[in-house]
Write a structure and sequence with these properties.
Blueprint lengths: L7 E7 L3 H12 L6 E6 L4 H9 L5 E5 L10 H13 L4 E5 L3 E3 L4 H8 L6 E5 L18 E5 H7 L5 H6 L16 H9 L5 E5 L5 E3 L3 E4 L2 H7 L1 H27 L1
Helix pairs in contact: 1-9, 8-9
Length: about 250
């Protein structure tokens, strides 16, 4: 199958978290509506890159971004999301994290039924940023978000930090965690009078488990800048991976 023959493309930014990434991919491939997958690496070490290349398959593309420096810690993820939108050849694009594991095998199919011309963005509300702003309350995150790409391309919605700064006049740094990856995309939605459909709400610094997802929040980022939290997140991740393996075994046996 060519990439455009799939109903859904799933995009996963990645940085040095191979084991969670593999689980994320396996659970995506176990969906009743199997997606085409784009993994966008944002600067992993050489050992991780070798494992990434080995994951390449007919329905799994691997791409690499290797900028020397960024002005904002979240900027490489925004670049990855914009690359994914440019590479997406299906009508629907599912943005997710490498530390977010789907819990329902029909999640993509059900979300795709909601997402279309009338509701072009369906996903989880951005996690609270009360210390910096109230704007997060109307913004969608990219934890588990489905986009109807004909509309996204028509309105020119991007995640770019350059656009956040130059088009919307937002400083590079306002407060910790603000602006974040999602700000420019949500400003573009607002300017086009598009309201996201929220199917859940992201939460900060915890293992978030609901009917749809098991998300060890900020696992990848904390490995870089919050080692105390990362130690807790590692314990959560071990449990999440084991439960993911059990779900996969149950799907195979059934």
């Amino acid at each position: 199958m060519k990439p455009w023959a799939y109903k859904i493309t799933a995009a996963i930014p990645h940085l040095n978290t191979i084991e969670p990434l593999k689980m994320c991919v396996e659970l995506l491939l176990a969906q009743s509506e199997r997606p085409y997958i784009l993994i966008i690496d944002t600067g992993s070490t050489a050992d991780a890159l070798e494992e990434l290349v080995a994951m390449r398959a007919d329905n799994v593309e691997i791409h690499f971004i290797s900028a020397h420096a960024y002005r904002h810690a979240s900027e490489p993820v925004a670049v990855a999301l914009d690359l994914a939108q440019s590479l997406c050849r299906s009508e629907r694009l599912f943005h997710t994290h490498s530390d977010c594991f789907l819990r329902r095998s029909d999640f993509l199919a059900d979300t795709a039924k909601i997402c279309g011309p009338s509701h072009p963005v369906v996903g989880y509300r951005l996690s609270p940023r009360n210390w910096a702003t109230t704007e997060w309350e109307w913004m969608v995150g990219h934890t588990a978000t489905m986009c109807y790409m004909p509309t996204i391309h028509r309105i020119g919605a991007t995640w770019s930090f350059q656009r956040i700064h130059h088009a919307f006049g937002i400083p590079w740094h306002v407060a910790p965690g603000w602006p974040d990856t999602e700000v420019g995309f949500n400003y573009a939605l607002r300017d086009a009078a598009i309201l996201p459909v929220f199917i859940g709400c992201d939460r900060n610094f915890e293992r978030q488990v609901d009917d749809n997802i098991d998300h060890v929040r900020s696992f990848s980022l904390s490995k870089l800048n919050n080692l105390d939290y990362f130690e807790q997140a590692k314990a959560w991740m071990e449990i999440a991976l084991e439960e993911g393996r059990r779900r996969l075994e149950g799907q195979v046996s059934s």
